[in-house]
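Pipeline run #58 for the internal structure catalog. This entry was flagged by the ingest filter as a single-chain record with no existing model, so it goes straight to prediction. Upstream metadata was stripped on purpose; only the residue string is passed forward. Reviewer on rotation: M.T. Logging verbosity set to normal.
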Amino acid sequence: MPLQQLVEYFNDRIERERLSSFRPFKLIDNRVFGWFGPLHVSSQLNGIHDMRKPEKMLGYSAICQVFNLEQEIFNTNELDQLLKHQPADLGQSESVIQFDRLTRTVHMLNYLPYSHEADLLFLDVDPRHILGVKSDHGAYFEEIINRCGLATHQVVITLSVHGVYSRFYQTLLKGLSNYQQRGYKIAIKLEQAGIEKLSLDFIARTGANFVGLSASGLDRIRPEIIQHKVALLQSTSRQVDAKHYVFNCDEYPINNPLFNHFDYWQNNQAVGSDYQNTRVLKRCS
């Protein structure tokens, strides 16, 4: 189905679900945008490459780009504050769920033109979404995936592990298990500070397909400390036969001995058009 028809289909679906005439999705210059209150959302697609054959693609990671009508770009903390209040008639957990669903639809639609290049789409999921949905995780999004002509096994549900959510790990495990039962793949992402016993136990219990480590700030850590942490991470991942990838890389990391045994790396360079193109953003306003 052509992209414009899919955009109209999902707009019709939102109208029926919310009993409203609001149509949040727009196709502008071959890129899909979504509206959430005063925010508009689009996708940055970053390639995930084979570490030893960088021309070989594993998939794309979809990174959410959020702008307001003044074309300001929001960071994660600023966005969290907005989600507490937008839309005004929704509670915080419901607001996160609705925002997550909208962004995932936008990402899926923006991935379609590139789906022939790589089989997998990595999608970040807010832990609050998993905690807020009581059952049947992934059912709503599965309908979107199928309508786009793809299957759940081509989507990698990606969860960033933070200590603040450690007391909710059991509930998160149940939610991830629901995704897995529907055929989704699972990736767990960590910063180096997150490599600790609780998070390693969590990875082992998820049976994750992929484990990602951020390269950000690793050069500021004593080599023996980070080497020990990476060894622990790899040992845990081997228990579930998970593949490793490194993200937040500004350049090809093959020459960094820390990543000798990593399978993939995520390129910071976005594919397609300039994702901060002022002309496109003005047309969205």
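catalog note: The longest strand covers residues 39-50.
catalog note: The first helix runs from residue 3 to 18.
status: ready for reviewer M.T.
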